Automatic annotation (TrEMBL):
Name of the protein this chain belongs to: Homeobox domain-containing protein
Compartments it resides in: Nucleus
Bias (Low complexity): 24-42
Entries under Pfam families matching the protein: Homeodomain
Membrane-spanning intervals of the chain: none
Homeobox domain location: 43-103
Record-level Gene Ontology MF annotations: DNA binding
PROSITE patterns attached to this UniProt entry: HOMEOBOX_2 (PS50071)
Domain of life: Eukaryota
Protein's organism: Trifolium subterraneum
Main location: nucleus
Amino acid sequence: MNFISENKLPRTRNGSWQLDFEGPSSEQQQPQPQSQPQQPNQHPKKRSNHFITQEQIRELDAFFKFNDHPSEKERKELGNRLELSPSQIKFWFQNKRTKLKAQSQKEENQILKAQHQKLRAENEKLRTQMTCYKEIPHRCNSCGTCATLVMSNERQ
């Protein structure tokens, strides 16, 4: 196997390594026009964000209720209808599923916290009742003899 040293690989603009498995093509051999030289402290231009309109969101939500994992074909059709790219559709659905999952987990955590507080209160109530019955003779229901209930120091 032949491994290529990292410093021999060309880098892309974002700093990642560019691997060329097919060798240079005729297009790559032609010099490409350089854009304006970048200043050392200047960052490359960011992509402009495309905000989805409320109407598009309503359409996406309606489709989400019908199907929360659209196929590639459905994403293309939906994208054409809403004038969005399939990748925008894909990421919107992914974000929507993540948001719903987080919301569901938050609600579940609130329910579990409430149950936990209820059990703690019940446990504390039982502990105080147990201290009242400490070392008081009780009659055993199964055999009818007297038994003494003693709470250990570990549980108090």
